[in-house]
Amino acid sequence: MNTIQANGYPIHFNENAYLELNKFLSENKYSNIFIFADSDTNEHCLPVFLPNLETDLTIEIVEFEPGEENKNIETCVELWKVLTELKGDRKSLVINVGGGVVTDLGGFVASTFKRGIDFIHVPTTLLSMVDASVGGKNGVDLGNLKNQIGVINVPKMVLIDTQYLTSLPQNQMRSGLAEMLKHGLIFDRKYWNLFSDLNNLNTNDLDILIHQSVEIKNNIVIQDPTEHGIRKALNFGHTLGHAIESYFLENETKTTLLHGEAIAVGMILEAYISFKKQLISETDYEEIKSVINSIFDKITFEENDLNPILELLIHDKKNEFGTIQFALLDGIGNIKINQTVENELLIDAFLEYNS
C-alpha cells in the first residue's frame, strides 16, 4: 500500500514501514532509542517489531501498565523519571509501540521531555491505526475527563503493520471499527456503504479499508491541523461518546467501556439528534442505527445515569464560551460543525436509544 503523506510526516504501511524506519535511523544521528510499550504489547507485539529493527543504537524498552486508567500525569512522571535515569537527552528517540493509550501517552511524554524529543508511532490496534496515531494529538486524561491535558505535535513517522491485528481480541477490533464507520458517515457515503455487510471481508479487504480510513482522517487534518474548523467534523459521536466513556470509567457500578463502544453509542445518539434537527432523513437514521447495532452490543442506561452524563459535557474540549458544540450529520457523508443542542433533545436521544 502506498505511503500517505500527512502534515509534516509520512504514514508507511506493512513491509515498507520497516524499510523506511531503518532508512530513517541510518540517516539521522540519535543517541539512543526508548521503546514505550504497555505489558500487553511488550508480550504480543515487540517480538514482531524488534526483529525488524536494524540499528546499532542502545535500545531501552520501557513498559507500563495497560488501560485508559493509566493514561494520566502520574504515569508521565514515572516515564520522565525513567528517561532521566537512563540518560535520555535531546537526541534520544522514542518509539511508541501499542494502542491509543501508548501513542497518546508516549507522544505527550516525548513532546514535553527536555522541551521535546523526536518520536515515532507504531500503532498495534485497529483503533490506534485509523485514529489515535494520526493527526498529532498527544495527551492524557485528567481524572475521568478524557484527553484534557495535551499538545498537538506530529511524530517523525507512523508505521502501520496490520499483522499486529492478529493478536487483537474481537472487542478491540470492533472498537476500531467505530472510528472507521465515523469516517464514512462524516466524509464518504460510498465508504460507509462498505460496512453494511462485514461477513464477506477478508484480510486484504481490511488492509484496504484501513488505508482508506487513514486517508479520510488525514485529508481532514491537513485542512485544519489545530482544530479550529473542519477538523471538528472528526468529533461526530464523540461529544456524547466521551461523556459516556468518562461516566462508565468513574462509576464502580458500571462496566468500563472501550473507546469505540462508547463512540458507537454516541454516533447513534448524535445521528438521532441530526434526524430531529432535520439534517438527515428518518431512513438514514434507521440505517445508521441498524448498522451500528449489528456490530456493537447495546448499552443500558438507567434514568439516574443521564444527568451525570450530561453534566460531563461541559468539560468537552470543543466547548466555546460555555456552549456545548456538536458536529452533526448533514446527510450521510457530510457534516455540520458548531451545532448547539438543547437539553430536552439530548434526553430524548437517550430515551430513544433505550427503547
Name the CATH architecture of the largest domain: Up-down Bundle
Helix coverage percent:
40-55%
Largest sheet: 4 strands, parallel
**Are there runs of 5+ residues with pLDDT below 50, and where?**
none
Distance between the termini: 43 Å
Compute the average pLDDT.
Answer: 94
Let me know the CATH homologous superfamily of the largest domain: Dehydroquinate synthase-like - alpha domain
How many domain units? 2
Q: Might you state the CATH topology name of the largest domain?
A: Dehydroquinate synthase-like, alpha domain
The main sheet orders its strands as 4-3-5-6
Q: Radius of gyration, Cα only, in angstroms?
A: 20 Å
GO molecular function: 3-dehydroquinate synthase activity
Protein name: 3-dehydroquinate synthase
Keywords: Cobalt, Lyase, Metal-binding, NAD, Nucleotide-binding, Zinc
InterPro entries: Dehydroquinate_synthase, DHQ_synth_AroB, DHQ_synth_fam, DHQS/DOIS_N, DHQS_C
In short:
It contains 14 helices and eleven strands. The protein is an alpha/beta fold and 355 residues long. A four-stranded parallel beta sheet has the order 4-3-5-6. Strands 1-2-9 form a three-stranded mixed beta sheet.
Task: Explain how this protein is built.
With 355 residues, the chain is of the alpha/beta class. It has 2 domains: 164 residues, Rossmann fold; 185 residues, Dehydroquinate synthase-like - alpha domain (Dehydroquinate synthase-like, alpha domain, Up-down Bundle), CATH 1.20.1090.10. Helices cover 47% and strands 16% of the residues. A 4-stranded parallel sheet has the order 4-3-5-6. Strand 1 and strand 2 form a beta hairpin. Helix 10 crosses helix 13. The radius of gyration is 20 Å and the shape is globular. The N and C termini lie far apart (43 Å).
